[in-house]
Amino acid sequence: MSTVMAGPYAESLAETAAFEETRFDASELLQRRHYDKIAEEYEAHYGDSCSREYRRRFLYEPMFIGLNLEGRKVLDAMCGSGHTTEYLLSCGAEVTGLDISPEEINRFRSRCPDARGICRSLLDSKLDSESFDCVAVVGGLHHLHPHLDTAIREIHRVLKPGGYFCFMEPHARSIPNLVRRFWYRFDNLFSENEAAIDIAYLKREFSEQFTFTHTKYSGNVAFLFVLNSLIFRLPLKAKRIYSPPLMTCEAAIGVLQSRLTACFAVAQWRKK
Questions:
Q1: Contact 99, 108 (CB under 8 A)
Q2: Total-model pTM
Q3: pLDDT for 36-87, tens place per residue?
Q4: What is the pLDDT, as a whole number, of residue 1?
């Protein structure tokens, strides 16, 4: 694989690959290889204009509600190819992206040359303590089992006092998760250690470290067929046609949704 250098912060992929092989445990290597394998197809479905619009309306705006990101140092943890970082940069944030996949960090550095891209584990990021105003994770935490608590403690460590942890994840205590648990077992687009997040458990576990400022349960028809078109193997040409009406339906249905019926949770926590 060739090395792509972009901006003063870019690290060589050869160096980061060597670091990964000696630092990652078995579950992390499993996930890294999984996403390296599906990276191209993943990018086609999650990087198209329809998915970008869905994330803006239904993920990013609720996640960062009330926050002024202008000039703030933000860690896009488990950043993938940089979709969330693009939004954060548009808000004026100073962004560092962190991901275990060399393929995804390669794409990240090409897409976001004004951000720093680091190929490293969130479980042991080596980033300075109390160095970020905000840490964002979009759909990454549910890949970290059985190390989820370790990851959140690392997020707490790198946050400044009063800093925000903003995340979106599929959540465990819902009807959609019953279907998700079955699907995970048979679909090779999912890695073996994926599982939805138990928000109630995390709040109990980290009540001394964070104040829970905002939680919104959301996600229905557009989440399934627009954002997750890859999972349902839907053609991208058709997606451009059906996405606008489904997002209108999503907004209308979302007003009535509860934790029991929603596909995911968006949360905003503040470090005590």
A1: yes
A2: 0.85
A3: 666 677 788 888 999 999 999 999 999 999 999 999 999 999 999 999 999 9
A4: 32
Nearest to 154 by CA among 143, 165, 162, 145: 165
Q: At 85, give phi and psi (nearest 5°).
A: -60, -40
CATH number for the domain formed by residue range(s) 13-217+263-271? 3.40.50.150
Is the torsion defined by CA of 96, 118, 135, 192 positive or negative?
positive
Question: Which pLDDT score is estimated for 183?
Answer: 76
How far apart are alpha carbons 156 and 207 in whole angstroms?
A: 12
The dihedral formed by the CA atoms of 223, 79, 82 and 1, expressed in degrees to the nearest 10: -120
**247 token code pair:** 């997002």
Of 122, 120, 142, 121, the C-alpha closest to 190 is: 142
What's the burial of 83, exposed, middle or buried (CB within 10 Å: 0-12/13-18/19+)? buried
Burial of 221 (0-12, 13-18, 19+ CB in 10 A): middle
Three-state DSSP class for residue 18: helix
Question: Residues with Cβ < 8 Å from 121, sequence gap 6 or more?
Answer: 20, 23, 24, 28, 100
Cα of first residue to Cα of last residue in the chain, in angstroms, is 43
pLDDT band at 218 (very low <50, low <70, confident <90, very high): very high
Residue 271 pairs in a beta bridge with 210
* pLDDT tens digits along 140-149: 999 898 899 9
Structure tokens belonging to residue 121: 């584990």
- Token match 């992206």: residue? 97
